[in-house]
Amino acid sequence: EKGMYPHYMLKEIDEQPAVMRKIIQAYQNEQGKLEIEEGILTALNNADRLYIIAAGTSYHAGLVGKEYFEKIAGIPVEVHISSEFGYNMPLLSEKPLFMFITQSGETADSRQVLVKIKKLGHPTLTVTNVKGSTLSREADYTLLLHAGPEIAVASTKAYTAQIAVLALTAAVAAEKAGHPIDFDIVQELGIVANAVQAMVDSKEEMEKIARDFLSTTRNAFFIGRNLDFCVSMEGALKLKEISYIQAEGFAGGELKHGTIALIEDGTPIFALATQKAVSLNIRGNVKEVVARGANPCIIAMEGMEEEGDTLVLPKVHPLLTPLVSVIPLQLISYYAALHRDCDVDKPRNLAKSVTVE
Ligand code: M6R
Question: SIS domain: from which residue to which, for each copy (predicted)?
């Protein structure tokens, strides 16, 4: 039930801080220690490579997950789009583990890969929001998202839930393998939940940004580097899907390799700056587009902000920034769609779960 909310999407955006806390709870035992099913940890630590298979927003969460499993747990990862992997399987490593990320657990493109992988006899794990869904039943193991039903076609709380669950899993796997991380993941996710709350409480600001940057435009670009690049792609997908504004998310460094030709007077560019190591580079990219007339909306993390930035995100652990930086992008897309009288919860030509290949 969407209650007092005009749309499920807005309700689901608002639920994200609570979902974050629910996940922390769900994965802790009575002593407050993080717990992941033993079989999953063994499968992760026995694998010489993790193959993440997913579609759409879940694919974008997988790109963030790759950073976690590689940087936190030291497991090499490949992330693949399920519809491509189905007919163009790469050379596999000797001991692969397959992880299917799917909110619904029903996506046909992902399921067809699961069926093929099972025939090959490799271990499989589904990360899903729906207990008892097809991909959950058919895989060896399941990790649940605990996000509650997601009704709006545009995925919001499932994306942040996926990222949180992947971060927790990577942290527990690292500990189990004998090389624990040097920060307290539960504490850091708690800080994230508060930061997400601050962002969902800034709706007026987001509505204004949507009005200022997107009310008349036909297209928009999202740029970032490293984890911000992953979130840029998700921001662009959200905007396309519900507002029908043509949008593209790409790596800041790629601008000069082609896309910059599209920049005209007033072209909106959403630039994310949450990653210290590449902050100078992304600032440089913003200068390049501004010199060509672009209208930049700069979203920076506290401590890295500069005068003239549009939005400052509360500071969180550098690996967890996607959980916070995506929130304004979700809200900006929501308001852009609303301003254009689009059917926010049921965008044209789309279904909540895509059960055909
Ligand atoms: O249920 P799944 O996570 O497998 O769905 C995958 C995509 O169809 C889904 O994320 C889609 O891209 C969303 N509509 C994006 O908001």
Answer: 40-180, 209-347
Hey, what amino acid is at 232?
A: S
276 is catalytic: no
Pocket test for ligand 1, best of 104, 334, 356 (most atoms within 8 A of CB): 104
ipTM (interface pTM)? 0.99
DSSP, residue by residue, 206-267? HHHHHHHHHSS-SEEEEEESTHHHHHHHHHHHHHHHHH--EEEEEEGGGGGGTGGGG--TT-
pLDDT the model gives residue 350: 84
3-state DSSP helix/strand/coil % of the chain, to nearest 5 = 50, 15, 35
82 lines ligand 1 (CB under 6 A): no
- Give the Cα separation of 13 and 154 in Å (integer): 10
What is the overall mean pLDDT for the chain?
Answer: 96
Q: Is the pTM above the cut of 0.90?
A: yes
Residue 347 has pLDDT above 90, yes or no: no
Distance CA 275, CA 208 (A): 25
Tokens of 197: 């709350």
pLDDT, tens digit (0-9, with 9 covering 90-100), for 88-100: 999 999 999 999 9
Both tokens of 317, joined, read 């652990």
Q: Is the CB of 153 under 6 A from ligand 1?
A: yes
